[in-house]
Each structure stands twice: as structure tokens, then as C-alpha cells.
Amino acid sequence: MRRTDREITSRERIDEIIQGCEVCHLGMADGDQPYVVPVSFGYDGQSVYFHSAREGRKLGVIAANPRVCVQFERRVALMPSGTEACEWSFAFESAIGFGVVEELRDLTSKAFGLNQIMQHYSGRSWEFDASTLARTRVWRVSIEELTGKRSS
């Protein structure tokens, strides 16, 4: 990281940032083009979970290359300058992770992943019937590298 004065090195602090976010941006490589989509997510401290439709561009991209980037930000605030255009900035906290995405296929794993998502937004566990689990695609990004940054 170029600005080490802004780097967050505490994994506990990075986890707090992720847990405090509403949206995860999932970055992928679609051939030689970047492709980024916002997803609702869950996080268990090691992996990020999301669900998807049965088909679509994102799934084709993942099938071709399962290496992904996940990005989170919170506490974003514009910091204007009254006198200098190039002095405008933002305050923020962010985390970026890299890893490999895989589809969860068995019902137990899918229920766990969906519960991570639902716990993130609702704060509680849920029961899922077998028919819901059978028609839902659930994915796990196993985080291999994770960094954090803040600007104030």
C-alpha cells in the first residue's frame, strides 16, 4: 500500500469495517475486461458469501475465472475545500480482499451461506426449506488476502 499512514493492519478492525457495510462489490475478469457487480453478502471472518440467480453474466465470468476481488466501504463523507479544487477529498474506511469463489452445492453448506447473509442484515438465524435451497445458488469467496484503509 502506497499510503502506509492510512493502512489498517488490525484484522479485527478490518472485520469491523466489513461487518458494517451494506454492499460488497464483487470484481471479476471477463476475458480482458473488468466486471464489477454489487452483491448482498454475509461474512464469517474467513469467507464472503453471496447468492445469485440460476444464470447470468456473473456466473459465466466466474466459470471462466474463479479468482475474484471483493471491496467494501463505509463512513464515506465528502471533504470539500473552499479554495482549491484539487484539495477536495473523501473520508472513508475500506477493505479489499482477494480470493477464489466456489459454488456451495450441498444443502447444509447452502443453508450456512444463506444464514451468513441473513445474519448480516437481520442479526438472526433463519430456517430454509429444502425446495428453497434446491433452487438457490450460493457462493463462497475464500479470502486469501485482505487489506484495510482509512482516510479522515
Structure description:
With 152 residues, the protein is α+β, with helices and mostly antiparallel strands. Helix content is 26%, strand content 45%. It has helices at residues 11-19, 57-64, 107-122, 130-135, and strands at residues 7-8, 24-30, 33-39, 42-43, 47-52, 67-79, 89-104, 137-151. It starts with 6 loop residues before the first strand and ends with a strand. The relative contact order is 0.24. The mean pLDDT is 94.
SSE order in H/E notation?
Answer: EHEEEEHEEHHE
What percent of residues adopt helix (DSSP H or I)?
25-40%
Q: Report the β-strand fraction as a percent range.
A: 35-45%
How much is the radius of gyration in Å? Answer: 17 Å
Classify the secondary structure makeup into a structural class. Answer: alpha+beta
Q: What's this, in brief?
A:
Helices cover 26% and strands 45% of the residues.
List keywords for this structure.
152 residues, alpha+beta, 4 helices
